[in-house]
Amino acid sequence: MKNSKTAVLRLHCPDVPGIVYNVARFIFERGGNIIHAQQHKEEIDNRFFMRVHFDCTGMNVTKAQFQKELEELAGQFRMETSISFGDERKKMAIMVSRYDHCLYDLILKHKYGEINADICLIVSNHPDLEPVAESFSIPFFYIPVLPETKPQAEKQTLELFNRHYINFVVLARYMQILSPDFVNEYRNNIINVHHSFLPAFVGARPYHQAYERGVKLIGATSHYVTEDLDEGPIIYQECIHVNHTHSVEDLITMGRDIEKKVLSEAVKSHADDRIMVYRRRTIIFD
Amino acid sequence: MKNSKTAVLRLHCPDVPGIVYNVARFIFERGGNIIHAQQHKEEIDNRFFMRVHFDCTGMNVTKAQFQKELEELAGQFRMETSISFGDERKKMAIMVSRYDHCLYDLILKHKYGEINADICLIVSNHPDLEPVAESFSIPFFYIPVLPETKPQAEKQTLELFNRHYINFVVLARYMQILSPDFVNEYRNNIINVHHSFLPAFVGARPYHQAYERGVKLIGATSHYVTEDLDEGPIIYQECIHVNHTHSVEDLITMGRDIEKKVLSEAVKSHADDRIMVYRRRTIIFD
Amino acid sequence: MKNSKTAVLRLHCPDVPGIVYNVARFIFERGGNIIHAQQHKEEIDNRFFMRVHFDCTGMNVTKAQFQKELEELAGQFRMETSISFGDERKKMAIMVSRYDHCLYDLILKHKYGEINADICLIVSNHPDLEPVAESFSIPFFYIPVLPETKPQAEKQTLELFNRHYINFVVLARYMQILSPDFVNEYRNNIINVHHSFLPAFVGARPYHQAYERGVKLIGATSHYVTEDLDEGPIIYQECIHVNHTHSVEDLITMGRDIEKKVLSEAVKSHADDRIMVYRRRTIIFD
Amino acid sequence: MKNSKTAVLRLHCPDVPGIVYNVARFIFERGGNIIHAQQHKEEIDNRFFMRVHFDCTGMNVTKAQFQKELEELAGQFRMETSISFGDERKKMAIMVSRYDHCLYDLILKHKYGEINADICLIVSNHPDLEPVAESFSIPFFYIPVLPETKPQAEKQTLELFNRHYINFVVLARYMQILSPDFVNEYRNNIINVHHSFLPAFVGARPYHQAYERGVKLIGATSHYVTEDLDEGPIIYQECIHVNHTHSVEDLITMGRDIEKKVLSEAVKSHADDRIMVYRRRTIIFD
Fold first, then answer.
1. What is the 3-state secondary structure (H, E, C) of chain C?
2. Domain count, chain B
3. Which of B64, B85, B106 is the last residue of a domain?
């Protein structure tokens, strides 16, 4: 896991010889020491991806210099790069409605040190979960959403996020659809959980759909939110066996545990800069 | 597992009080001894399902009498019943094309005594797998299928099945679509394997679809064949985690093991009279 | 699930013909209607087990009469029986130390209606988790345990349980070993979670043991507590894959989710009278 | 997967700054292009491990030169190194007794191209599986083993392996214990499958032990063979849920599928030079 003495560099570019060597040299010459480097090549587009986790304690340039010089390397290889220093922890916001299972799970996993980010605030379109937020001393903002007030509510939410320097947003069973404008502000930084193994059972009431189709597996999916509902890049999926004895209510109950799992795994990976998105696919380094 | 000294009674009917007692009495009075009985109620239609596995060694009526008297009981409760005596083993046919992994798996599991039926013959639209059939001394019939000869080929196949008293058919990656007429002859007695977790990725090339969607789970499904392709009642499903490092070829490779698993489990359950179909759902007693 | 209008009868006895029929008749004649009946035969000892879930709304005898007449049936077949009427919910106590993950999980699952019992109180040998108990309005009793005060502390705990009519006890990562006398008071009614897949890694620090052995799976086990530590009848087990990248701390983190799972599944099954213990094995009807 | 145009370098050494850079430079300067590099640090001993998969098509030195110069690098960092060029496929031998499920699985997976090695021969202490070997045209050697002939039989086997340049050996349910001398000849190159999740149920009849203990999971383990039976470094483990309805025979049946899985996964990883052994733990790069 990234920590206050390390940094994570992620990059992707057209695949040509020498990338690994040049990146390793770049970091070595600036006093960084590579702890872990991972690579991947997407067959489509012949594109090369890399994540480097390195120790910064011996760094002989400032962070600003490092970033500036990185731009030169990036230009040379036509790279898209992203550098994240571990001494600047990410700030996350959680959006919820009335279900509390994912919220509790995220808060507790954060408390155990499993999530490499700070939970700065919780926003909800219902007041119900304020006591949960309070019992963990997390600021809670009740921002109701009605069809006619939705643009205003989203504006208010974004202002709140700006004021708190929020880096990414977790929809922990938030039952409102975000507008494209909102999504654009946090592209690849809004994580949602859908209660089916996508692409099966998109849309509403997936457990009811699953029951009626008589499937023998139900699943849950965490994904980045895009303009197209349930179509964003998938981050994590899990499924469990079910059988004819299970009612829709049983499926909902059984589903809660896997919803928690897929959402918290996605949040952990995102917070630790392990995910890269390319087209509709995610590359998740471990 | 059903054996030569036991029988399996399956029935379903509208749910009213006293069914379990009356069925238990019916069997008891005819000298049968219940080893295992299971029940299920489908909420939709308020319908009651039951499977009774009983010892026949002390039976005081003939099989014909038992069946005749069972009809009376069935009439009284408006039951649909099905009785299967373990001294009459089911006869199965396997249909294949060129892939051999499911075929080997079925033959070997049969050899180990895991499948409560006889593999009577193998039919294929390609000659490739004849040596496999031969090495296990199973009759192999090569019946090519071209668009213009398909009706004739199906007719020939059905005649073959009739001649061998085939009870049920297993499509072990058979790459032809069966006509509704063929399906009708073996309703709820043709088992297919589809290489995705239905209802995701119906139709052709599901592993390619899965790769492009960037899913993190792939699956396989065994189901009864109906007129609507990939829409029949699901029997068994399995899935495994995949990630960005896996190419389409990797998915195909990884999928083979779960295809084998879901198909063989379905065949075992079917052979042992554990499955009941109601509408689009299967009730599978264990 | 058992509810206020149904009852659960569990019994076991030497296997002879006619048990299912006689039990079905017994219930039928007293106006009960069987919803679900399950049977099992242990090969060792040729012993027959049965669980019957039946509707009581039409019962034509009192509960006391039912129980008295059941004794006669039991005598006839040399049965051990146990009847549980759904209008009398079980009362459970939770014992914890400092870890809160299993505690939260049980409380939340109870809140969602997944556990068919009442959480009456929490006992701990540390004061740390009192705020958790408070935030859910569950009485919390801090009973410290020192080597010299242990007998007194156990006595105090048992008195507390008696006063609250506690039926069963859940050790949610309670870090004290209970004395044989305590165990005897709640035989087959104390559920513990051990953080390994027993019988591997009995005793202390199983995750450290697992790390050192270099296993590729870690597990968790829920079991009934007996005099012999970690040797009681196993109720539920779960495991997950691990690899060389995982430190002991990672194993501990990953283990929390499966500890929660195995413990809550055991509690659900116990509360719903689904478990029967015979020698060292559990029979768990679903 | 390694192929005829690529090579795999594995190394481990005390962890000091600059290793990744220096290895990357070493390969770059000799015209290799890194496709995939992975690193790992064992906390115990502060030891650094690395696997580099690189493209050799542009290499400007001979393989011999590469190896010689690698020794210099190794000396500088006190590395243990191992280089494997993909144009030299590994040769494997399979040892079996009477069970054929793992044998079939390995042969078929090899046929599908999943195993990056050649199956050169099969050795058995029983003649039973010769027809299987024949049906796939693999040389079969029947070498009976009696207590008094064991040293001679092992000698004969080793000579056979030498004659065929065997690189590694797979015990596919081979029911004989190999002597320390035999093991020494193929240290970390003999892969065994044990039919339990080690360290539970070492020794004989693990499924019987599992049944008697009443576990709810059974497992299988593949591992390198050492002098201490069932104590070698674990490569892969898998487990599945079982319950009270399963007899010992059922466990044996269910176990076959996971035995196949853990053995074939181990063989694939070994053949592709993905495994490094350090003390009792395996580091398996993917």
1. CCCCCEEEEEEEEECCCCHHHHHHHHHHHCCCEEEEEEEEEECHHHEEEEEEEEECCCCCCCHHHHHHHHHHHHHHHCCEEEEEECCCCEEEEEEECCCCHHHHHHHHHHHCCCCCEEEEEEEECCCCCHHHHHHCCCCEEECCCCCCCHHHHHHHHHHHHHHCCCCEEEECCCCCCCCHHHHHHCCCCEEEEECCCCCCCCCCCHHHHHHHHCCCEEEEEEEECCCCCCCCCEEEEEEEECCCCCCHHHHHHHHHHHHHHHHHHHHHHHHCCCEEEECCEEEECC
2. 2
3. B85
